[in-house]
Automatic annotation (TrEMBL):
PANTHER family referenced in this protein's UniProt entry, alphabetically: ABC TRANSPORTER G FAMILY MEMBER 20 ISOFORM X1 (PTHR43038:SF3), ATP-BINDING CASSETTE, SUB-FAMILY H, MEMBER 1 (PTHR43038)
SMART domains linked: AAA (SM00382)
Matches recorded under PROSITE patterns: ABC_TRANSPORTER_1 (PS00211), ABC_TRANSPORTER_2 (PS50893)
Top-level taxon of origin: Bacteria
Protein name, entry field: Glycosyl transferase family 2
GO molecular function: ATP binding; ATP hydrolysis activity; transferase activity
Species per Swiss-Prot/TrEMBL record: Companilactobacillus allii
Pfam families: ABC_tran (PF00005)
InterPro entries linked to this entry: AAA+_ATPase (IPR003593), ABC_transporter-like_ATP-bd (IPR003439), ABC_transporter-like_CS (IPR017871), P-loop_NTPase (IPR027417)
Alphabetical keyword list: ATP-binding, Nucleotide-binding, Transferase
Occurrences of domain ABC transporter (ranges): 6-233
Length: 240
């Protein structure tokens, strides 16, 4: 059965005089990957932060697992990866993973297997004992993604998880995301990579503070009479 994991209804968010989100409607069902795309500054991260209750809305309702956000208890069931990495520089990759695993309430007996699994998904197994201060930007993104994956959360909310990650690893990460979806778990993901948008079950296009289009990639391509999601994006923006 399809459950609604995220429901955003008439979401409004203002920063001073700027109304970033005017009327955002979006839902994420169980067992699907929803991609949120839109030009830089369109408000994708703001949608995510209001969904998580990290930003207070100026109107509308955000519910996650049928509960109104913000709700601290729900956060344990959500794997969130922000655009900026929240890592402890002085600790190793492994120590960071252990820290977050404990915060998420993982049992001691699960710890090693779980860390090994998430580290291999992002190809960090050989670098786990290095201090994060010596990591490259891409390695930090990979560690942040590994942290979000810890504990098999029912819902993953990923803000541009593959920035700075090379194509082979990106493919491996998408394989993992697809198998998470196949387990009936859900993913809301923002991306600038249009090839990744093609891999989502549904794509929402955020423009002028609204979700201008929201459907399966193939349906969007048909609606806009184009061959790729990149062209959907460009046509919606009015770029010929
Ligand atoms: N805390 C804040 N205070 C003031 N303005 C903000 C704040 N957060 C976001 N904004 C503004 O809201 C708008 C949307 O920002 P947001 O980061 O949500 O966009 P985005 O679509 O995620 O962009 P990008 O693709 O570049 O990451 C921008 O104009 C940004 O300057």
């Amino acid at each position: 059965m399809e459950n609604t994991m995220i429901s955003l209804k008439h979401l409004v968010k203002k920063f001073g005089n700027q109304t970033v989100l005017k009327d955002v409607n979006l839902d994420v069902l169980s067992g699907e990957i929803v991609g949120l795309i839109g030009p830089s500054g369109a408000g994708k991260s703001t949608v995510i932060k209001t969904t998580l209750g990290m930003e207070v809305t100026d109107g509308g309702i955000a519910t996650v697992f049928d509960k109104t956000m913000p709700n601290r208890q729900l956060l344990a069931n959500i794997g969130y990866m922000a655009q900026t990495d929240a890592l402890y520089d002085a600790l190793s990759g492994k120590e960071n993973l252990i820290f977050y695993a404990k915060m998420k309430g993982l049992k001691k007996s699960e710890l090693n297997n779980e860390i090994e699994h998430v580290a291999s998904v992002v190809d960090l197994k050989d670098d786990l004992n290095k201090r994060v201060s010596g990591y490259s930007g891409g390695m930090m993104r990979r560690l942040s993604l590994a942290i979000a994956l810890l504990g098999n959360p029912k819902l993953l909310i990923l803000d541009e998880p593959t920035v700075g990650i090379d194509p082979a690893l990106r493919r491996q990460i998408w394989k993992e995301l697809s198998s998470i979806r196949d387990e009936g778990r859900s993913i809301l993901i923002t991306t600038h990579v249009m090839d990744e948008a093609e891999l989502c079950d549904r794509v929402a296009l955020l423009l002028d503070g609204k979700v201008m289009a929201f459907d399966k990639p193939d349906v969007l391509k048909m609606q806009y009479k184009v061959d790729s999601i990149e062209d959907v994006f460009l046509k919606a923006e009015g770029v010929e």
